[in-house]
Write a structure and sequence with these properties.
The structure holds 2 protein chains of 2 kinds. Chain A is mostly helical. Chain A contains 17 helices and no strands. The radius of gyration of chain A is 49 Å and the shape is elongated. By secondary structure, chain B is α/β, with parallel strands linked by helices. In chain B, strands 1, 2, 3, 4, 5, 6, 7, 8 and 9 form a 9-stranded mixed β-sheet that branches. Classes of the chains: A mainly alpha, B alpha/beta. Chain A: InterPro entries: DUF719 (IPR007998). Chain A: Belongs to the FAM114 family.
């Protein structure tokens, strides 16, 4: 577990934390501290070397800025105090202090108040470390890479002090020059360029002077930082781990091994075997429910739908719908290219086609269906053969007669026979409509409006046939049993309902045909332009 | 349907084109009828087959080969999972038209559609105009499966349809076809016998050329 954390730390630390600390904390260190140090120095040194005027000038200049900075620093101190308490930083904080105070002896001798300055600088750093750790806390990042900006800032400070001191030792003019450079430095560091970017020659020279103490200071600071932030990180990562574990527990709840979720996420392609099994289970469940709910009899109840699926009807309807879809899109794009007056004419005609292809209220079928069908189909002028439709009608009549004979006892079986005959009839009509639609598209000189009314007539006849058969059968059942008998009335209702289902398919086929005829009409209008 | 398949049914649809109605009849009814009416638009045939112990309803759409119906038959590619592209080995022109038909099929169908190239009338070897190697080369070039059949002797007819169905079935297993999208020509529907559930799939066989089949 430790290794990944360290790696994480490395990655995050070098990237994010570095920039954050550099941008925020260093700003503080450089600008405020330099000013502060400067002022302290000024105080110390002014008594010995400089005139009081000069000191007053400098302090005045810096005082305003310093006040602001002091306020900020007070806030930081408070914050840092809190952090220290929270993070047990106190111990770590001592380390850099000791290091710096150790250096004190060596440094203070030649340059007076230097040790104190350094000490305060060091303590400022510890504060900054605290802040740095705060940043770490905020961003849950790691420690490595942090010290370098601090070091950079410190180097800048140190070099500046030294420079100031040495210059002040020589001339007051030199001091003013130094001040100028300092200001430059300040702006530099305030811009976040972490000093050192534009070091003067003198500054570079001073680097070597501070070399030793700097090294130890750096190691102390970075050590402290590392310890502190690693604590924070460990704590933070432990918390994350707990959260993660908890999340996994929740995810795995009711799904041990994550089999379901894994299957859901990784394997989206359907497994046929599995699907078939599921389908079968569903069917079995439905069967069970049927038995529980309505008794075994309901389950076995024949329906028109069931009979319909066994015919070629659905395939014809599907094929017709494919053709209709294609016609629909072709029609739309074709109409767009036509002149406006043609568009208006087409819109009128196509609306007529559409309304024609809607079933009206059912009339009584008076004539012989075979005759009507043959007559209508002949009028269409297409290569259509109504033989199969006529055969289907005779089959329906035959079965209806059979159902009327057997009566109530055998209703279920009789109903099944009746429905499959009716489904055959509707399927044949759909087949004829499908073929008629195809032929209308490829036969030249057909009038789509005429065709629409012929097909509507055909559909109307078949629809009436369904109604008539239902009437006949129900009439026979009623005459045998009592009307008040609930079973009889249920059966009658069901037969009418099932026959009406046939009408739905007839209507559907007509609507699809309408799309085909509309395209055919549009096409011929376009060709006559 | 009343016998109630204990096993769910997978059904497929093949549109057999090139007016190869004889091929379809041989497959569905196991009989040969030398004279056939011209196919108008599309005719349908269906047969139950068994693949991997699963019942599959192979639904075949036999599309008209006539040029006049071409724009209509194009609509039918859309709902197909597979196609048989059939030519007549005794008539070179049917072979020459294959490219056109293949282009149509590829353009208007699902890109995963299984296409099998069939050289029919292999019983009439003496009148052969298209060499077997030519058919093989064409199939190789276009990534099709190739087979020579005879609707008359029933040679390879069963294999042609069933191999196509098997390939579609494998594509379903691989998840290439979304069985919930009926535009792929495959559907899992309720089987109307009690206790059964059906998986239906359509396979289209588009056909090559030619009026007189067989």
């Amino acid at each position: 577990m430790k290794k990944p954390r360290e790696k994480l730390g490395e990655r995050l630390g070098t990237r994010k934390l570095g920039t954050k600390v550099a941008n925020k904390s260093i700003d503080g260190i450089c600008s405020s501290d330099i000013i502060k140090h400067k002022e302290e120095e000024d105080r110390n040194i002014s008594t010995n070397i400089r005139g009081s005027q000069l000191t007053a000038k400098t302090t005045e200049k810096n005082k305003e800025k310093e006040d602001e900075k002091m306020k900020k620093r007070l806030q930081w101190e408070e914050q840092q105090e809190r952090w220290n308490q929270a993070l047990n930083l106190n111990k770590d904080k001592k380390e850099p202090c000791q290091v710096s105070s150790g250096n004190d002896d060596g440094w203070s001798a030649p340059w007076g108040g230097w040790g104190g300055t350094l000490l305060s600088a060091a303590s400022t750093f510890t504060r900054e470390v605290g802040r740095g750790v705060g940043t770490v806390m905020e961003t849950v990042e790691s420690s490595i890479g942090v010290p370098s900006p601090e070091v950079m800032a410190e180097e800048v400070c140190k070099s500046e002090h030294q420079k100031t001191v040495s210059e002040e030792n020589t001339t007051s003019q030199g001091l003013e020059e130094g001040k100028q450079i300092k200001r430059e430095k300040q702006t530099d560091s305030e811009e976040g360029s972490v000093g050192g970017d534009r070091p003067g020659n003198q500054v570079e020279a001073n680097y070597s002077l501070g070399g030793f103490s700097l090294g130890s200071l750096v190691s102390g600071v970075s050590g402290a930082l590392e310890t502190a932030s690693s604590k924070v990180l460990m704590g933070g990562l432990d918390t994350l781990e707990v959260i993660g574990r908890k999340a996994m527990d929740v995810i795995q709840e009711g799904d041990p091994g994550l089999h379901k979720k894994r299957a859901f996420l990784s394997n989206k392609k359907p497994n046929l075997t599995q699907m078939l099994q599921e389908a079968r289970q569903r069917a079995m469940q439905e069967e069970k429910d049927g038995i529980v709910g309505g008794g075994n009899k309901n389950l076995q109840k024949p329906s028109f739908e069931q009979a319909w699926e066994a015919t070629e009807g659905p395939v014809h309807l599907e094929a017709l719908s494919l053709v209709a879809k294609q016609c629909q899109s072709k029609k739309t794009s074709m109409i767009a290219t036509l002149p406006h007056f043609v568009q208006e004419k087409l819109l009128r005609e196509n609306t007529v086609i559409k309304t024609t292809c809607e079933l009206d209220e059912l009339e009584q079928l008076e004539e012989d269906m075979a005759e009507v069908v043959s007559g209508v189909v002949a009028k269409m002028g297409l290569q259509l053969h109504p033989k199969k439709l006529i055969e289907a009608w005779s089959l329906v009549q035959e079965k209806a007669a059979f159902v009327q004979e057997v009566g109530l006892e055998e209703t279920d079986e009789a109903e099944g026979v009746l429905y499959s005959a009716l489904a055959q009839l509707v399927a044949q009509l759909c087949a004829l409509t499908h073929k008629g639609g195809e032929l209308a598209l490829i036969t030249p000189d057909t009038d789509p409006l005429d065709l629409a009314s012929h097909f509507k007539e055909l559909a109307q006849v078949v629809s009436c046939g369904l109604e008539k058969v239902a009437d006949q059968v129900c009439g026979a059942i009623t005459s045998e049993g009592s009307v008040t008998d609930s079973q009889v009335s249920n059966t009658i209702t069901n037969i009418y309902l099932q026959a009406a289902n046939g009408n739905n398919y007839i209507q559907e086929s007509l609507a699809l045909l309408a799309s085909v005829l509309q395209y055919s009409n549009t096409k011929s209008a376009a060709s006559h332009l | 349907m009343s016998d109630g398949h204990s096993c769910p049914v997978l059904s497929m649809r093949v549109l057999a084109g090139v007016g190869k109605s004889c091929l379809l009849l041989q497959f569905t009814d196991k009989r040969f009828q030398p004279v056939h009416d011209l196919t108008i638009g599309v005719e349908f045939g269906a047969r139950m087959i068994t693949i991997d112990n699963k019942q599959i309803k192979l639904q075949i759409w036999d599309t008209a080969g006539q040029e006049a119906f071409r724009s209509i038959t194009r609509s039918y590619y859309r709902g197909a999972a597979g196609a048989l592209l059939v030519y007549d080995i005794t008539r070179r022109e049917t072979f020459n038209h294959l490219t056109q038909w293949l282009e149509d099929a590829r353009q208007h169908s699902n890109s995963n559609m299984v296409i099998m190239l069939i050289g029919n009338k292999s019983d009439l070897d003496s009148r052969r105009e298209v060499k077997r190697e030519e058919g093989e080369a064409f199939a190789r070039e276009h990534g099709l499966v190739f087979m020579e059949t005879s609707a008359k002797t029933a040679a390879n007819v069963e294999e042609a349809f069933i191999n196509t169905a098997r390939e579609i079935y494998e594509k379903i297993q691989e998840g290439v076809f979304d069985v919930h999208n009926e535009a792929n020509g495959i559907k899992i529907g309720p089987q109307h016998s009690p206790g059964g559930a059906g998986l239906t799939s359509n396979q289209g066989a588009a056909g090559g050329q030619g009026g007189g089949c067989c």
